[in-house]
Amino acid sequence: MMAGESMVTSLDLTDPAQRSAADAFVMAHADGTPFHRPAWLTAVARGTGNRAHMLAAVAPSGQIAGLLPLHHVKSALFGQALVSSGFAVDGGILASDPAIVAALAAACEGMARGGGIGSVELRGGPVPGEGWALHEGSHLGFARPIADDDEAELLAVPRKHRAELRKALANDALRVEIGREARHLKAHYRVYSESVRNLGTPVFPAGLFREVLTAFGEDADILVVLEGDRPVSAVLTLYHQGRAMPFWGGGIADARRLRSNELMYYRLMGHGRALGMRVFDFGRSKAGSGQAAWKKSFGFDPVPLSYHSWSATGERRDINPNSPQYQRRIDIWKKLPLPVANLIGPFIARGLG
Questions:
Q1: Whose C-alpha in 87, 92, 152, 276 is 20 to 30 A from the C-alpha of 39?
Q2: Which residues form the BioF2-like acetyltransferase domain (predicted)?
Q3: pLDDT tens across 99-144, in order?
Q4: C-alpha span between 329 and 348 (Å, rounded)
């Protein structure tokens, strides 16, 4: 497909030269995110089995002028879709020229039609063009600058929540570890799986976290809060162009009593500062959710996010936790014993994307 003088093609993500060129484009683009990077595409594909694609607009010079990362997410329960990016909170078309944006959107539509895939979901990026639906207000983003030092960071937290954080800081039984070793992955999965089960959500495959950590190298790590030797809170964080981005985090049931989640994110802000990060990007939450309220109470102002979708039939996947059908599934899931949830959860969650 042609876009002016540029051609839209599908990159070979197994080719080191093409991967490198795509990664360089993402890292140089002001709107690039970790979820546009080949590392994310391939890690998710390996960790969940959902095939990855990278559409690229290539100029006559051979230089990349635009990218659209995609995962073909398939599920017997939830249907299938092309998603940019799968298992991410951002993505979408990465291009500055409206003609390039339109060409990449058209190529994506053609890929969906050709593959018998009912819909496309873009989590961010510019408006793709006619025929695409805009979805805004259902999700909120939270980000603010990292303060100059620990004391300034503490004072940036509103008074009520700051009091809870001070209790955690005074608890000598809590300690923090940061790393990328197998023991950090094991502790993270133990905590995260319990956390999402308690929220009524199937846990992702353990391989997804391992593959992301491996693919991103020094651009990702795990912070664990322990009470003695017991992991009580943990988070896997991505680092991208000056932004610390805690992504998969949670705490066990005891985390609320211990205020270990407060301690976890406060220590992560200091860790991010030490790494040279300038912004703490708390990620997205559903509007009206307890998570959104918690982040706001931590001193983060919500910003509505915009997503886009396209469907050949007008139908979309039902993966909205607020829908009545989904709520029934959540209520059932919360009652499952943790070993059972961890056994069957990954098979379900790999189709959510």
A1: 276
A2: 159-296
A3: 999 999 999 999 999 999 989 999 999 999 899 999 888 899 999 9
A4: 12
